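Model it.
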Amino acid sequence: MAEIVKKKYSVAQLAKIAGAELIGSGTSEVCRVAPFESAGADCVTFAADDELLKNISACKAAAVIVNKKIDSAVPLLVVDNVERALIKVLREFMPQLDKPPAGIHKSAVVDEGVSIDKTTSIGPLACIRKGAKVGEGTVIGAGCKVGQNSIIGSDCRLEDNVVVYHNCNIGNNCIIGANSTIGATGFGYYFIDGQHQLIPHTGGVIIEDCVEIGANSCIDRAKFGNTVVGAGTKIDNLVQIAHNVIVGKCCLIAAQVAVAGSSKLGNGVVLAGQVGIKDHTTIGDGTRIGAQAGVISDIEPNKKIVGSPAMDIKEFFRRIILVQKIPEMNKQLKQLIKKVEEIEAAKNNS
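Modeled.
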């Protein structure tokens, strides 16, 4: 078994990596990144908000990445953007796994008429069907399937057991997580002659450049034309994108989201976990939709939406406040009813 070698950096070295101003000693040795509350003497951590900074005296880390100078016994790495600096540091501590060798594994099945760049890696038990093309530097993991006439661009990575059906087009620099499926037949049926009959889906899927798709997600092929995921979009695990959906560029889609058929997401849309979007719905550019929202109508650009049925966040909280007042309002109503009854009784007795 190969020994896992831990990377070690001095605090001063991490300051250079993060582009940070070092305040305090830079000699301590760091071998990992940890959360603020649990970071030990061999860790670098971060504090992006004032609440954490209030507790800086209790921090036991070798150094803390912060966005402003404060009094601290712990060495500080001061940066303009904590998240950006953290990304740089985390990259340094990523496990160094063996890079899959270029070439086709002896157990893989590759049909005739396939175009595979010589720098591509095709893993064990992978299956590449007739007419498919795989670009330069791409890694196809173990057990993957690339269907007929599908195109995988350059410098992509398909993790183990990814299935790309026929007539799909994946751009450059894309990552698809294990067990995800691209191009399965969409969920479209007509009720004819007493049964649900599947509508043929003759279209494809286009995944543009620099898209990342998590594990166990599904992007269905179009009835006609293409289902499209725009460049730079990042999709979490367990996400369902239905047939003929158009996802804009640089969207963020969290786990367990379901986007029904023929819906359209603009550029920069953010969908939090378990959002559901009705079919044929349009979401404008830059709109952010909160967790578990149920979207049943079009939404204009740059809105903040929550709730089910989904609504503007201000309206949502206005209703929440009203709901919280219902017990008191009910009490007042009962008192008013009692007073009216007393007045009516007094009239009847006079």
